[in-house]
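User: Continuing from earlier, I have the next pair ready.

Assistant: Great, send them over.

User: Here they are, in order.

Assistant: Folding the first of the pair now:
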Amino acid sequence: MRLRKGSETILVVDDNPEIVKLVATILLPLGYHVLDAESGDQALHLADAGTEKVDLLLTDVVMPGMNGARLAEVFEERWPLVKVLFMSGYMSPAISEEDRHSRQKGFLQKPLCPSELASKVRELLD
């Protein structure tokens, strides 16, 4: 399967650095610019700095401190056009069925499949 490329900026938020590294390894060769954060607070700090417009927030659902659902809410309040892609190793009740299948949001189950990640990212951004 040929993966579609892009040039958008994706902010990856996960408290597991190995997940962040995996996502970057998949998306960087496809042309995406990847920013990373280990927490919701760090993600908001990066986005607030405004050096780059974030096109897609790719966040883990279960994290210490601010969880992914709350982070997405804050992002949507501040940057209403941002797309959100949740990822989790758990089927979290924090993410509604509506959010999992909306045009602005999506959900990926961990462990991540490279082709599924790339396809879902492109689907949300298009």
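And the other member of the pair:
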Amino acid sequence: MTAQPRTMPADTTGLQLDAYLPYRLSVASNAVSRLIARAYEDRFGLSIPQWRLTCVLAEDGPMNQSALVSRTGMDKVTVSRAAQGLAKRRLLVRSENDLDGRSHVVALSPEGLRLHAEIAPLALAYEAALISGLDPSEVALLKRLLLRLQGAAGVLAGERTEAS
């Protein structure tokens, strides 16, 4: 008995994965994240969520968990685990939230700030290498388009309105 060749079903939906923008965005994002994650993990022992929290806290200062969830686009569990990992390494400090006794405010410790200052140039170098083949006007357009896509996704998910 000979094996019959498998025939692939015809795609009648019109969807072509490689041309599907959400797929392309996801694949590109994963590729960039993997590249950078290796550098942060190997050199500094940080996960991507920990690096993201470090950056946000370095830029914006102390904040509570719900503000971190909103600012980073990560879920509560991911933010909590990242914060716990940073706290274990004494890169982050927790304090009572004066406005709400049920939550905590987190901030980078002096060591966390030093680590951020050490990693930031590496992050900028990776960004420069990634966009080196693009015109500055293309980079600006890409950033604007990504913000618009993010906003549209928020509207479709019911998280935002057109005006917000």
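Worth noting for the second one:
The longest helix spans residues 21-44. The chain has two domains: 42-130, 131-164.
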